[in-house]
Recover the amino acids of this structure.
């Protein structure tokens, strides 16, 4: 390869051009294969300006998006922070699609372009292609054309039914985005055609087997009405597939008041929510994977003499800014930095495979000293999400390095209590607590459709399974319920039940919630 | 080999549509904010970009959220130095909800965003019920007039400069040695003369052949080197130049006696703002002079003008005298266009109205471009007084001035939408004169 035989380092001066970007990409690609054995989607690298980056921010990072005021609001917030200099813009943005789209900012220097190419075009890209959550839940090949369809569809609806009508539909659907994903089972893959086919066959069968005689039978006299009611309730729950955790899906399929176009809009919001669901569960891993990849590749390139010393210093400076983690009492502290945690976890795995201590051998008998950190990491990237990854791989050494401790916060008490710290007795607990904090189930209230009597009052009954006594914030709960009512068309009620005791903690319904 | 695409030249502002949708949604609250700004801000600053807080109502995005003051949580924090299990740390007092995990959270009010000048004016104009033409002309900043500014190599055919073009053409023809028609004619003549010889000898025949060949060559050359080539063509270039604008001074006169309350002052302020917007657009430099009066008049700054009260009777003529004095001292009417706007509730000391008429008639109206008077009345009174000529003494006296001076305008106003009527004449003149240009 020509670039390797060149005498000077490839990445040295601060200006980039397309020819050098392309040579650098090839060098990085070579290193990614040699050093890490990455498997990636083809890349499409796009150079954009800072304004375009701001635009991309506000359409939740997607290159195309339908129009909605909330994106305008986000844009204003980002723009304001950026103009004030409170927040810099990301150097890059990457989209989980096939081909994988990577945005590079034009302001970046050559060294930064190399860094973000390794980070996004190889690190994130590999993770998107190989992690089980993304493989299972997202359709990387189809997302862009789907968004294109969604944007066009919403625009056409606005033309036909008015901006206000579409907006109120989107508002209502957005309110349920958190409850609009399947987290336990795979979404049904029935194509609409098959669905219609099935429905027709069923109708035909009913017509064929209809016998007027049955109607003349006198109603059976049940001895016990309650049992009958229960049976009926069971029957209708079964027919509606209840309980249902995906509220948007339930409303889309079963709402009695939605027009076809409104159903389609609910569906669009639901599909986008589902598309982002894996990203929310794998933030630490995704960023950790990308940081580990760029760090490893850049060092490898530096060893080969492809990166000059000056450029390497610049790269290391950006790298250490990104993975900076202040302590909890530092004024700069704003939560655990997923970049830092992810990178440390992965470098720790590398260390455990190569130079384990006796403690590591006790804690990780299967990977300690196996001498193959590449395979271990590739396997971890493919088969974990944040919660399981931390639960599996957070080592005592890392807990000590981070000096992690657990603080119990009882809402009613006036004190926090330190329950565990980085000592022999605390390791398991810290690890469990940290993993638990990354479990999306603990952040997202678990609300399901439990019952609805379509032939009766049609009231939609929701149940909130309350864990650890975390009930819902009253004001947003009531407005969200009103949004559900808009989609459902009839009254909606919500019951909060404690997960352990089953006791009813609160009850509310739309007619009361209305102000 | 990846696919590199340069997107920098793609259109930006993809979010403009979203921004407009957001503004529409937040309109009511933004309107309140602008209204407050008109009431508290300076007249001259009304039409600038403005930072407004992101409105909370109507733009919330509700979803099911866990209440901060409920349940049991665990926070995992890095950087432990002195804690051991069982240590208790008092919670910070901030609102009771201040767990360590919400330190990075910002509430919606923390964001302010910039409304552009156009957006501010749109909202400001909303309940003034201005005709669209006027809105447009107020938003436009300067008028331009095309002015000759040298020559250019491109332009529309109507702007071809023939003199320049032909000069270039001549120079090029000389430089490239384009054969002249006379030379060709002379050569053709010579050939004809030689051919006329009845018995040409060999040398003559050779000469004819040579001459014919030369003539051919020159003819070809003439064809190749055009008489006027596209590179010769020059166009007159025009540059848009802002129209020369003079200076204007605006006098704001207001009665500040006790009878002018909050509502009256707010209406008066809108009235002044509108006139100022108009002047600002028309003139390079606009000064504002604030004169307030009770039974005596003072020139004051804007703050005092709108916000401090003064007790006393009401003698309007003092304000007019003060105005004349200021004009004499600082704003000679040869150099300044003088506009005056007077707001009052119509009260005046009984015998003073006559004196006002005298002042206006003899001095002020001659020097003023325009004098607008608004009498701020109660909503209930507007039905009674709306059209009749009855009214306060000041109103009755001013009616006479109104009849004799075309540049005097007066109106009773009870709500913001009435204000524009006072200026209708002014804006009508403006738009007709600007269409003349």
């Amino acid at each position: 390869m020509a670039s390797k035989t060149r005498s000077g380092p490839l990445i040295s001066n601060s200006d980039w051009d397309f020819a050098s970007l392309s040579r650098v990409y090839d060098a990085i690609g070579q290193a990614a294969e040699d050093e890490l054995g990455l498997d990636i989607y083809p890349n499409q690298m796009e150079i954009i300006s800072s304004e375009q980056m701001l635009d991309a921010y506000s359409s939740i990072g997607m290159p195309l998006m339908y129009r909605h005021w909330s994106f305008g609001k986000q844009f204003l917030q980002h723009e304001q922070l950026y103009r004030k200099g409170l927040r810099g813009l990301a150097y890059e943005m990457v989209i989980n699609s096939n081909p994988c789209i990577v945005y590079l900012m034009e302001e970046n220097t050559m060294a930064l372009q190399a860094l973000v190419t390794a980070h996004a075009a190889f690190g994130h890209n590999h993770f998107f292609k190989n992690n089980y959550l993304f493989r299972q839940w997202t359709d990387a090949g189809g997302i862009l054309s789907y968004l294109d369809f969604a944007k066009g569809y919403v625009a056409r609806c606005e033309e036909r039914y008015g901006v206000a009508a579409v907006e109120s539909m989107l508002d209502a659907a957005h309110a349920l985005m958190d409850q609009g994903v399947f987290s336990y089972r795979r979404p049904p893959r029935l194509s609409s055609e098959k669905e219609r086919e099935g429905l027709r066959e069923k109708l035909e069968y009913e017509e064929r087997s209809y016998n007027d005689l049955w109607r003349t039978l006198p109603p059976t006299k049940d001895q016990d009405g309650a049992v009958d009611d229960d049976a009926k309730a069971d029957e209708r729950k079964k027919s509606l597939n209840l309980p249902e955790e995906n509220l948007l899906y339930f409303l889309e399929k079963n709402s009695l008041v939605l027009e076809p176009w409104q159903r389609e809009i609910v569906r669009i919001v639901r599909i986008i929510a589902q598309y982002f669901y894996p990203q929310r569960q794998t933030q630490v891993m995704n960023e950790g994977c990308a940081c580990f990849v760029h760090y490893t590749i850049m060092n490898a390139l530096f060893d080969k003499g492809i990166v000059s010393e000056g450029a390497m210093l610049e790269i290391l400076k950006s790298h250490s800014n990104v993975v900076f983690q202040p302590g909890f009492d530092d004024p700069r502290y704003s939560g655990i930095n997923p970049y830092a945690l992810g990178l440390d976890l992965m470098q720790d795995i590398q260390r455990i495979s190569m130079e384990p201590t006796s403690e590591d051998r006790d804690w990780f008998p299967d990977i300690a000293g196996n001498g193959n950190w590449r395979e271990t990491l590739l396997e971890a990237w493919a088969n974990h999400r944040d919660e399981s990854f931390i639960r599996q791989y957070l080592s005592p050494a890392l807990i000590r390095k981070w000096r992690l401790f657990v603080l119990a916060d009882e809402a009613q008490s006036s004190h926090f209590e330190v329950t565990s710290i980085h000592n022999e007795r605390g390791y398991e607990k810290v690890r469990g607590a940290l993993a638990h904090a990354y479990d999306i189930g603990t952040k997202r209230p678990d609300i399901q459709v439990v019952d609805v009597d379509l032939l009766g009052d049609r009231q939609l009954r929701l149940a909130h399974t309350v864990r650890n006594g975390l009930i819902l914030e009253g004001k947003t709960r009531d407005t969200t319920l009103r949004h559900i009512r808009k989609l459902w068309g009839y009254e909606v009620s919500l019951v909060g039940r404690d997960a352990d005791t089953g006791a009813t903690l609160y009850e509310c319904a739309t007619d009361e919630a209305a102000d | 080999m990846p696919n590199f695409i340069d997107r920098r030249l793609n259109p930006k502002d993809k979010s403009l549509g979203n921004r407009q949708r957001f503004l529409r949604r937040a309109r009511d609250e933004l309107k309140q904010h602008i209204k407050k700004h008109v009431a508290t801000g300076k007249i001259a600053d009304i039409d600038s970009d403005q930072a407004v807080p992101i409105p909370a109502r109507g733009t919330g995005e509700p979803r099911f959220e866990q209440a901060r003051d409920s349940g049991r949580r665990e926070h995992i924090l890095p950087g432990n130095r002195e804690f051991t299990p069982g240590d208790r740390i008092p919670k910070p007092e901030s609102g009771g909800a201040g767990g360590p995990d919400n330190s990075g959270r910002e509430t919606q009010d923390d964001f302010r965003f910039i409304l552009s000048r156009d957006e501010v004016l749109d909202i400001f104009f909303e309940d003034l019920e201005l005709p669209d033409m006027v809105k447009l002309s107020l938003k436009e900043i300067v008028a331009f007039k095309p002015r000759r500014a040298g020559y250019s190599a491109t332009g529309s055919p109507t702007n071809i400069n023939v003199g320049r073009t032909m000069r270039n053409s001549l120079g090029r023809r000389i430089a490239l040695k384009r054969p002249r028609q006379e030379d060709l004619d002379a050569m053709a003549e010579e050939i004809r003369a030689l051919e006329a010889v009845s018995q040409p000898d060999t040398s003559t025949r050779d000469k004819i052949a040579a001459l014919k060949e030369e003539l051919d060559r020159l003819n070809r050359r003439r064809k190749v080197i055009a008489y006027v080539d596209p590179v010769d063509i020059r166009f007159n270039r025009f540059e848009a130049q802002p129209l020369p604008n003079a200076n204007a001074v605006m006098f704001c006169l207001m009665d500040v006696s006790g009878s002018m309350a909050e509502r009256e002052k707010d209406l008066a302020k809108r009235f002044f703002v509108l006139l100022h917007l108009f002047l600002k657009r028309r003139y390079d430099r606009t000064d504002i002079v604030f004169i307030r009066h009770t039974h005596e008049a003072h020139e004051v700054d804007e703050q005092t003008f709108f916000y401090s009260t003064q007790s006393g009777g009401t003698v309007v003529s003092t304000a007019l005298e003060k105005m004349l004095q200021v004009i004499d001292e600082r704003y000679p009417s040869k150099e300044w266009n003088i506009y005056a706007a007077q707001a009052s509730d119509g009260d005046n000391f009984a015998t003073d109205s006559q004196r006002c008429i005298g002042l206006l008639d003899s001095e002020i109206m001659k020097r003023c471009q325009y004098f607008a008077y608004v009498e701020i009345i109660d909503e209930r009174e507007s039905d009674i007084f709306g059209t009749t000529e009855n009214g306060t003494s000041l109103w009755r006296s001013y009616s006479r001035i109104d009849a004799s001076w075309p540049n005097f305008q007066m109106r009773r106003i009870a709500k913001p939408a009435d204000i524009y009527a006072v200026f209708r004449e002014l804006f009508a003149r403006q738009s007709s004169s600007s269409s003349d240009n």
